[in-house]
């Protein structure tokens, strides 16, 4: 009898009747219900209860071992122009079934992923309407995913969600790492605070952005990472966000209860539904060790298997870009100062006077191609290659770019041929200016243009307010758009890396050509005033739970000049922390974001970026504490080398790297790129040491990290 | 010296300073301004004055001979988040220039159209903002078109119109033929009333429709036809509505002043503008003879010349359809009762049980092909051919149709081949359910599918509320969509006949593959309760001013049964009035809408439909009074035959057909299809006579029209 079947047996025994007996003092609806169904995780440690009160209102609760994680919390939906699916339910039937599979991602942190859960299905019927709704809970060892399902039925075909009532009633005033809720941007600094402090810190936690829609002072975004005073790591997010609007969380400070807050559409509706259908999964991860949170694949597992039969064309990519020089204002995306109003297809660039600072010019791109090819990169991103950058932002412009018209000084044919002759590809850039209709109208031609010129990956961008006007970046309309592009790109064998799009929810399992997303404050903000030193110790717990981020690390010359000689006009990391990010910030798409001159200057440190793998056989989480530090080791796919990254926040620390993950009876050579004595992110970011030593699986390395520092190690089998 | 140059000389002399001296008692802003510029029509009869008051507020006024048509009326725009373009202007410069051309439409009421006007350009500058705006007036013998132009300038690039202040201050309580204002439908019955009665008649003038957005009790739609007590025919409309929202008119009953009311977008904005740009033309036609209004080509002339170099693929079309049998509920668009929820691409129709009433089945379509081909038609429309009709309406469904998936009993390949073998084509049908994004996503494939199967014309439909949600059928967003489809269709050499789309404003001159539109209450409403007997005597003055209507006449069996045996369950015309509509309702796309059985039954009358031309060398407007009667004669293009149509409202009358338009010294044979004695639309619609007589240009025929009757004559040269 397996552990799973034991747990399964327990579940049946668990179906006792137990009053939930919760007594909250706040506004959240109190549960006087009874447990009518339960399920255990395969290891029996996580338990989910489903409850109904006397009015037929559904609730759920959750425990981890003997600790309560989620107190009885309301479930349900309010609907437009009809009675909500929020009460008056009776239990029609329930069932529990185990599931255990192992699958192989096209790319990932490991080559095999186990998907092992027990599923509780609770079928409800609303008595006076005869409408059916099911709650489905998948209980994993590291948490639970649950969703609402609406079967095909006579009494419910189309409905409009005006409010999702899902609550997450927490047990105390946990510590949280959060960004402010917003319907249009995630590019906020994280704040570490008690839950009770979110409201009063809200306004200072919001920085200006190109598109913003405030929700409420206590609104935060998912994935939300928390830690309880008794050592539980709790994470709330969602998985498989498809054809629904994105969920935010609004805290009731009196009850420490988060309530779901969906993203409204142009007329204030939250989701338009057609049965049979279901919501995304709402996820509550819980562990007693932060490393287990990072090791969990719960979000990916809740997504559907890959929909593509042939995935041979999907490859991880290490790339450089004609980009950081624009981000740091050395050159520009635009070509001329002649036009303050551009109409693509009408504005004649052939006669325009170049302003002389256009980055994507033939000569400069050739220089980058030479450098990227010589250093083993796969691709070179070129931004600002196409007409329209003189007049693209801030006016919800409709026909903003056409994605096929290069500037006069960008010879798209010759440059691609040149790149291909050197063994690399150019990477396409599609800034949409958030003009969704315009992008969709040009999409086929734009993708065909890529195929015709030998591109196979595109970085897309959604800067500014969404056009369709009234819609938000995280509403159902835009969510639908992003996936439409990914699926259409697959028809052309193109990989997509979408910036300013919806935050990932594990869809890369199903559509692995979605090789990257931004959806958080990336390295570009190091040039716009800086990210907090602890930023990248938080992201793996939050943003990265849904999928890889195109964080664009590798800024070796951290004294950047975009803002001129003002405080914090530098990356808030040491040089070797930038190297560590290639391991700690998992992505199959890794950029060396700095300019060639910086890599020439720090050529010895650059070696790590050239060496590090971007697809993995296995990952080992050696040390982890959100907001504080991370040490991760990964073994390359198809080889014997390991790479280790370790980072810290503004506090220096000494990391412990237990090499027992190495093969026994084997010898390795480790090259360690570490902060040097006196290094610090704000004063001496580029004091570093590189040393090589022989190691085995018996060794334990203790390596110092400077304030906001870190180290990287490459370990080659001998 | 030509008449035009004389008029031009007069204009210069007109530039006197004259106080406008208007004193209105109502809310409309009073003009205390002075005339600062003027222009005459080529025949000197129509004069437009441009005025500025002491605050720099612009006004215009208009006269016809010695009669005032438009009293000084305000001009200007309110803008979002900035000062409006409504006052503080000074005159920078002005100019008047004559224009005279003759052009040849691809198809039309005549083969040559003269475009002859004097253009007054008034360049204004707003003193405190340095923004520039021009008013351009084109003064024709039958009225004026004017528009706002915004040149390329430093101080004004992007702006958002929140209100267009354009007014039309009328001189009295004119008689008007109007439909209620609405942002989503034009399918209302016309009402004839005094202007002062519009408000109180408003609610009774609105019938239920699939998508409606009420504006205000005194709101009406354009083209609005009026008649003054002293015999002037005044018509307000717009021309060349491109990338702007549609204009409605709201009456201030105290001052008899109409103010422009644009159509809001999802966030309440009226138009998003980028300089250089301009508004559509606002048109005021004025004549002293209703026949001159019908003969005017002012709206077409205000549109730009044809944008296509090759127009050889654009042909007028006479067609039948598998359609009226659905409209009358004999058969249905849908295929099965199995599905209450359909997902295109997922729902499996191959196993569905047919309900047996699907009209677009192979056998039935073949029968229609045989009949249409045998009777000389060009095409056969087939609606309900594609999957999705079980679940397409009323839920703002997004992915509603894919336009390429036929029902199991519609063999698209075989049926097209069969039609082609008989010398005709099938006509495509694309019901979009107003889901604009979905249609655009499928557009290329849908058009390619047409090309692949030999279709070259599509009837598109926009039933229901617009998806993009929050947008209206007549907003800038949707206006942009309709033209996008027309232009893209041209790339595939496809002609478009769009139903429920924006009302035409003469764009068919520029894009002549826009061969039809609905945009008013068509013949289908004869099956849904009936059109008023005077309906088709109004449409040529209103709806048809902007372009042809796919009115779908030819219902010879007027006792239709959709509503069963209830009052008015019949077409409100006699049989021969249906024939007359082929002449009085000009369109290059004419349907014989009835079912084959009806044409077999009334085979002698059917002969006129088979004979009548659909493209014209020349049109002569013999008799016309809006709301009462029309008699029109047209000469076929490329031949010597003439066709005459005459209709009346519910009142019988005897029409006078002066045949002096025929060639002198030639003999003709006329076949007259007329109401018989005792005929009437409501009791004896099918009492008719057909007689043949010899005629010359000396003859004058007096022919009786029954209540809501009419007659048709074909005249062949011998």
Structural class by SSE content of chain A: alpha+beta
Distance between the termini of chain A: 43 Å
Query: Which oligomeric state applies?
Result: homodimer
Report the biggest beta sheet of chain A as strand number plus sense, adding barrel if it closes.
Answer: 10 strands, antiparallel
Biggest interface goes to: A-B, 31 and 31 residues
Q: Low-confidence parts of chain A, pLDDT < 50 over ≥5 residues?
A: 1-27
Number of helices of chain A: 14
Give the helix level of chain A as a range of percent: 10-25%
Structure summarized in a few sentences:
Two copies of one chain form a homodimer. With 718 residues, chain A is α+β, with helices and mostly antiparallel strands.
What's the helix and strand layout?
The structure is a homodimer of 718-residue chains.
Chain A: H1 3-14, E1 34-40, E2 46-52, E3 58-64, E4 67-74, E5 77-79, E6 89-103, E7 113-126, E8 131-140, E9 143-150, E10 158-164, E11 167-169, E12 175-178, E13 191-194, H2 198-201, E14 219-220, E15 224-227, E16 233-239, E17 247-252, E18 257-262, E19 271-274, E20 277-278, E21 281-287, H3 290-295, H4 298-301, E22 317-322, H5 324-327, H6 362-374, E23 379-382, H7 412-421, E24 425-431, H8 436-453, E25 457-461, H9 476-491, E26 495-499, E27 514-517, H10 524-527, H11 535-538, H12 575-584, E28 589-592, H13 596-601, H14 603-611, E29 616-625, E30 629-636, E31 642-648, E32 653-658, E33 668-675, E34 688-695, E35 700-705, E36 710-717
Parallel strand pairs in A: 22-23, 22-28, 23-24, 24-25, 25-26, 26-27
Antiparallel strand pairs in A: 1-2, 2-3, 3-4, 5-10, 6-7, 7-8, 8-9, 9-20, 9-21, 10-19, 11-18, 12-13, 12-15, 14-17, 15-16, 16-21, 17-18, 29-30, 30-31, 31-36, 32-35, 33-34, 33-36
């Amino acid at each position: 009898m397996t552990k799973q079947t034991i747990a399964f047996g327990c579940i049946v025994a668990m179906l006792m009747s137990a009053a939930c007996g919760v007594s909250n003092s706040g506004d959240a609806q109190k549960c006087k219900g009874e447990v009518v169904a339960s399920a255990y995780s395969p290891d029996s440690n996580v338990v989910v209860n489903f409850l109904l009160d006397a009015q037929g209102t559904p609730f759920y609760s959750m425990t981890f071992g003997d600790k309560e994680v989620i107190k009885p919390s309301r479930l349900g939906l309010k609907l437009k122009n009809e009675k909500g699916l929020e009460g008056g339910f009776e239990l029609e039937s329930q069932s529990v079934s185990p599931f255990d599979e192992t699958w192989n991602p096209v790319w990932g942190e490991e080559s095999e992923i186990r998907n092992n859960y027990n599923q509780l299905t609770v079928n409800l019927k609303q008595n006076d309407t005869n409408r059916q709704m099911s709650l489905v809970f998948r209980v994993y060892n590291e948490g639970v995913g649950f969703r609402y399902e609406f079967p095909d039925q006579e009494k419910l075909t189309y409905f409009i969600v005006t409010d999702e009532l899902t609550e997450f009633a927490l047990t105390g005033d946990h510590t949280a790492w959060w960004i402010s809720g917003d319907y249009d941007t995630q590019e906020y600094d994280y704040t570490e605070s008690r839950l009770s402090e979110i409201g009063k810190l809200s306004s200072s936690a919001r920085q200006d952005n190109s598109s913003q829609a405030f929700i409420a002072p206590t609104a935060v975004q998912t994935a939300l990472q928390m830690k309880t005073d008794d050592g539980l790591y709790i994470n709330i997010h969602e998985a498989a966000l498809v054809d629904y609007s994105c969920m935010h969380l609004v805290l009731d400070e009196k009850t420490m209860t988060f309530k779901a807050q969906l993203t409204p559409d142009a007329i204030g509706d939250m989701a338009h539904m057609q049965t049979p259908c279901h919501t995304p999964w709402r996820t509550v991860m819980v562990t007693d060790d932060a490393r287990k949170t990072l090791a969990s694949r719960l979000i990916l597992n809740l997504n559907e298997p890959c929909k593509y039969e042939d995935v041979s064309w999907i490859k991880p990519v290490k790339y450089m870009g004609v980009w950081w020089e624009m981000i740091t204002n050395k050159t520009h995306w635009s070509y001329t100062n002649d036009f303050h109003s551009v109409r693509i297809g009408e504005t004649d660039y052939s006669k325009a006077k170049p302003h002389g600072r256009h980055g994507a010019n033939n000569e400069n791109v050739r220089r980058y191609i030479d450098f990227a090819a010589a250093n083993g990169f796969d691709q070179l991103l070129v931004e600002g290659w196409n007409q329209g950058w003189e007049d693209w932002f801030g006016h919800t412009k409709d026909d903003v770019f056409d994605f096929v018209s290069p500037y006069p000084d960008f010879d798209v044919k010759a440059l691609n041929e040149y790149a291909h002759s050197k063994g690399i590809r150019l990477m396409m850039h599609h800034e949409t200016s958030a003009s969704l209709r315009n992008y969709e109208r040009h999409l086929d031609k734009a993708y065909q243009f890529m195929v015709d010129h030998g591109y196979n990956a595109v970085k897309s961008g959604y800067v500014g307010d969404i056009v369709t006007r009234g819609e938000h970046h995280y509403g159902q309309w835009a969510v639908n758009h992003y996936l439409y592009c990914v699926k259409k790109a697959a028809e052309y064998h193109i990989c997509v890396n979408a910036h300013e799009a919806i935050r990932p929810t594990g869809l890369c399992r199903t559509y692995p050509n979605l090789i990257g997303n931004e959806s958080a404050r990336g390295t570009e903000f190091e040039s716009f005033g800086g990210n907090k030193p602890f930023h990248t110790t938080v992201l793996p717990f939050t943003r990265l739970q849904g999928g890889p981020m195109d964080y664009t690390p590798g800024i070796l010359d951290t004294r950047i000049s975009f803002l001129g000689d003002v405080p914090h006009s530098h990356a808030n990391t040491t040089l070797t922390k930038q190297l560590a990010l290639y391991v700690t910030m998992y992505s199959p798409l890794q950029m060396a974001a700095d300019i060639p001159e910086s890599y020439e200057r720090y050529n010895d440190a650059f070696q790590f970026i050239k060496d590090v793998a971007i697809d993995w056989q296995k990952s080992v989480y050696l040390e982890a504490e959100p907001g504080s530090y991370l040490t991760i080791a990964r073994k390359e796919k198809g080889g014997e080398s390991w790479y280790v990254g370790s980072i810290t926040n503004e506090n220096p620390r000494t990391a412990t790297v237990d090499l027992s993950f190495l093969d026994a009876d084997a010898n390795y050579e480790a090259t360690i790129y570490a902060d040097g004595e006196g290094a610090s992110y704000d004063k001496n970011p580029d004091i570093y040491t590189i040393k090589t030593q022989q190691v085995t699986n018996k060794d334990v390395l203790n390596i110092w990290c400077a304030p906001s520092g870190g180290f990287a190690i490459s370990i080659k089998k001998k």
